[in-house]
Amino acid sequence: MSNRHLFLKSGFPRAPHGLGIGRYVCQLQRVTLKFCKSHGTSMGMRGFIEHDLLNYAKENPGVVVYVKPRRHKHPVIVAEYLNGGRQWMNVSNYNRDDIIKWMELLRTQIHDSASLRLRKMWHTEFPSIQGPWTPFMFKDPTTNLAQFPNKELGAAVKLAPTATEQLIELFKAQQLLDNSQTTDGTETMKHE
């Protein structure tokens, strides 16, 4: 078994900074495209830079794109996020379409979540003395000793009528009262 997971960064699940409060905030801040002008493994990256980079930059004005040519090196994409995380990706021998897809993935994800080892599945800045909530928290403890099937516990929950239901019943009662008064009035008129 590998011990590779021991060397991953550890942390807690967190909401991205500023996301969902008022408006969408793109978490990707900077992308650096490193490539070689003559090396064969950089052909897809060069195709992306020549044909698609301007459109990508126009569609994503909040992302700063750096292009860095390097001699005789494999192509690399380095993404830097708002929370300070960096994701480094080797794109040797990738074609242009693959690089477009990877650039879109880097733009839409929050950070390199695959390289984060979660210490706990939940985390709070304000811990409770009572502990985490469970569905059984406010249940009657005598149900632990009940024998099942139980008619009382298995019965449907009868809730009090809602305000709308009460208004409908009052309206129906008022209509019945009005109908009975009009029928009494017409009967008296017929007898006279």
Task: Walk me through this protein's architecture.
By secondary structure, the chain is α/β, with parallel strands linked by helices. The protein has a domain at 9-118: Glutaredoxin (3-Layer(aba) Sandwich). The protein has helices at residues 43-51, 53-59, 96-108, 151-154, 163-191, and strands at 9-11, 28-35, 64-69, 76-81, 86-90, 116-118. Strand 4 (76-81) and strand 5 (86-90) form a beta hairpin. Helix 1 packs across helix 3 (96-108).
Keywords:
single chain, 192 residues, alpha/beta, Glutaredoxin, four-stranded mixed beta sheet, two-stranded parallel ribbon, 6 strands, structural constituent of ribosome, mitochondrion
Order of helices and strands: EEHHEEEHEHH
In whole angstroms, how far apart are the ends?
103 Å
CATH architecture of the domain at 9-118: 3-Layer(aba) Sandwich
Task: Give me the count of strands.
Answer: 6
